[in-house]
Amino acid sequence: MRERKIPLNLNCGLDLAGEVLYGKWKIRLLWFINAGHKRPSELQRKIPDASRRVLNVQLNELEAHGLIKKKIFAVVPPKVEYSLTSFGETIIPVIGTLGKWADENENRLRDLIQNINIKQPEEN
Amino acid sequence: MRERKIPLNLNCGLDLAGEVLYGKWKIRLLWFINAGHKRPSELQRKIPDASRRVLNVQLNELEAHGLIKKKIFAVVPPKVEYSLTSFGETIIPVIGTLGKWADENENRLRDLIQNINIKQPEEN
DNA sequence: TCGCATAGGGATAAATTTATCCCATATTGT
DNA sequence: ACAATATGGGATAAATTTATCCCTATGCGA
Question: What range(s) does the HTH hxlR-type domain occupy (chains A, B) (predicted)?
Answer without folding.
Answer: 12-110
